[in-house]
Amino acid sequence: MMGSPIVMILLLLFFSTVLGVVASCYRFDSKKEILDSLPRRTLTFALVVAGFAVIAYVLSATVLMPTA
Amino acid sequence: MTTQDLAPCESTRAQIASTVWFSVLIPGLGHLLQKQRGWALFWFVTSQFLLISGFYLADFSQLDYGSPLGIGGNTIIYFLIPESGNFLSTQIFARMYDSIESGGRYPTEIPWRNLGYIMSAMSGFCGIFSAAHAAGMLSRSSASSSHAKTLLNPGSAALLSFMLPGLGHYKTGRKFKGVLLGGSIMALFIVGMMLGDWADFDRQRHSYYWVGQMCMGGSGWLTALMSEPAKFTSVMPYQDVGLLFTTAAGFFNIVASLDAFHRAEHDILILEPSNDISE
């Protein structure tokens, strides 16, 4: 069953934020350093996953489509 | 030297490495080698009680989720996670008993199966954290500063963070970090369970994801117990996402535990006169 793309994007952002928190907390110990590095880590992960999703979608709709 | 470079001295590191190996082999053995008989007895009895009770309650059906690894038909080790954290006892039981769903019985016919799985898994984690506790004791006892000896054992900090995400950080004075880390991991786990309708925490359904979910520690074990009666009533659109979230939350909790150990050990090492970081 396919979920809504909007919900999937929101879930990806949520997961990316938690991953960003864990990565930043593992790297740094002070509140300022953690909060400063959090947006960059969150966005990097979300964009990389979204990029892979776009590549997978394009491939599945073109060369990997069984009926193409 | 920066704070990132701090590490125990060479001889202490060698002692820690051997203590960890002995503790995973038999929980409590690492403490016994340090002449900590009380702690040795505590870790040994707790881990063996959990393993034996868990195996009996689930009628040894845990063995269906592992596999023998060896060369030329000779089994060298039985690969069963997370029970293998209590290594030697798990290997002995795997050679003494056989399962294949407990002699062909349908799994639901074993009434205490879920509790048995949780208890035997707890035993494995007990073995791993007995190693962390023994290693932390060595780090603390090797410190020359008297103040360092009063600080929280790094192994205890790791165990606290494992049982409740962020608690180890909170107890070592990192309140913001503890709340942020703990709150984030717990939120990920709870959202994941909600997406799976609280019914996707089952060793039989997906045994490897289950190991990740069990890494949530105390909160995960409680959820596993309470959600046992829950069953799927329909196909959930985000069920797979939920499974990914809960498993990832467990692995993030392990990262948080490692960080709690590292930070608590850092608090001890920074007090050493030889670790002057002002240069």
Description:
The complex is a heterodimer of chains A (68) and B (279). Chain A has two helices and no strands. Chain A has helices at 5-27, 31-61. The longest helix of chain A has 31 residues, at 31-61. Chain A is elongated and about 55 Å long. Chain B has helices at residues 10-25, 29-33, 37-57, 87-96, 100-104, 113-141, 154-163, 167-171, 175-195, 207-214, 218-226, 239-269, and strands at residues 67-71, 74-79. Chain B has a two-stranded antiparallel sheet. The model of chain B has no long low-confidence stretch (mean pLDDT 89). The chains are: A mainly alpha (68), B mainly alpha (279). At the A-B interface, helix 1 of A face helix 9 and helix 12 of B.
List strands and helices in order, with pairings.
The complex is a heterodimer of chains A (68) and B (279).
Chain A: H1 5-27, H2 31-61
Chain B: H1 10-25, H2 29-33, H3 37-57, E1 67-71, E2 74-79, H4 87-96, H5 100-104, H6 113-141, H7 154-163, H8 167-171, H9 175-195, H10 207-214, H11 218-226, H12 239-269
Antiparallel strand pairs in B: 1-2
Helix pairs in contact in B: 1-6, 3-6, 6-7, 6-12, 7-12, 9-12, 10-12
